[in-house]
Design a protein that fits this description.
single chain, about 280 residues, alpha/beta, Rossmann fold, four-stranded parallel beta sheet, 4 strands
């Protein structure tokens, strides 16, 4: 392990690889307890999470539903509820995967908020888009979609007196692969410190369908590049990112890309600048 790998892994609190099934079970139990403690400490009884159809939100949703089920049994209080939210932009190309994820999680409540009209209405009011290239406008609005989903989740959480769960983990955090104040905004992030293959391992532990566990990751934010794979944006694979974070050797180009991207996206992982 090179010094820079160790430094980044420590900053992101990367968890070591699961050595065996017992270690995986222990980590699942620890994260379920974390979710429960966050809720109990807040004095609230509702959790809200947007379900995209990808393995990250699937895994976070499974942990959340298990946490709430255990809390209801422990406290004898049926007021503890998990709300899974579908947040499509008009028609989502992989809606079947999103619905399959929600079905497998089997949340206490299912909500749907289509953000299409809200994003388009906002875009029509932004004079700064005038004269901008289509690709530039598309990229900016991709981030707007992520922020609108955040707004929707916090609106639901406000109405239901709950907390919003985030899906960020170490393999996304190191690449800054989230929208600032969009999907990066949440009250608790139960996948923090995990690499991608560990997120998948936890989903498998819950018995999730392999089609969802191994689904090609995509943020699907850009209209001009629908379903664009995360790895195409990264320039490296999640296998390489996971290996880097666990201190294993990776090809020279991958090492350079990860280090440079980590430095470039530092502003996303810190609080706003202040005097």
């Amino acid at each position: 392990m090179q010094a820079v790998q160790r430094e980044i892994a420590q900053q992101l609190k990367v968890q070591p690889p699961f050595q065996d099934h017992a270690a995986l079970e222990a980590e699942v139990a620890r994260r379920i307890t974390f979710i429960q403690d966050c809720l109990l400490n807040s004095g609230l009884k509702t959790l809200v999470l947007g379900i995209s159809g990808g393995v990250d939100s699937l895994t976070a949703g499974l942990l959340a539903q298990r946490a709430m089920k255990e809390l209801r049994a422990l406290k004898g209080d049926d007021a503890y509820r998990f709300i899974a939210v579908r947040l499509p932009y008009e028609t989502q190309f992989d809606e079947h995967d999103a619905q399959a994820s929600v079905d497998f999680i089997n949340p206490d409540e299912r909500h749907t908020v289509n953000i299409g009209a809200a994003v388009k209405a906002l875009a029509n009011e932004v004079a700064a888009f005038e004269g901008k290239a289509a690709v530039s406008r598309d990229f900016v609005l991709g981030n707007t979609k992520a922020r609108m989903r955040m707004v929707a989740q916090y609106t639901i959480a406000g109405a239901a007196s709950g907390l919003v769960i985030g899906t960020d983990h170490a393999a996304e955090a190191v690449m800054g692969f989230f929208t600032k104040f969009g999907d990066g905004a949440c009250d608790l992030a139960p996948l923090s410190g995990l690499v991608k293959n560990q997120v998948r391992a936890i989903a498998r532990h819950f018995g999730a369908p392999e089609s969802l566990v191994e689904k090609i990751p995509t943020a699907d934010l850009e209209d001009l590049s629908p379903g664009k794979p995360d790895e195409a944006s990264h320039g490296v694979t999640y296998t390489e990112i996971d290996a880097f974070l666990h201190g294993q050797p990776v090809r020279e180009e991958a090492f350079r890309i990860i280090c440079e991207t980590y430095r470039k996206t530092e502003h996303k992982r810190v609080m706003p600048f202040a005097p």
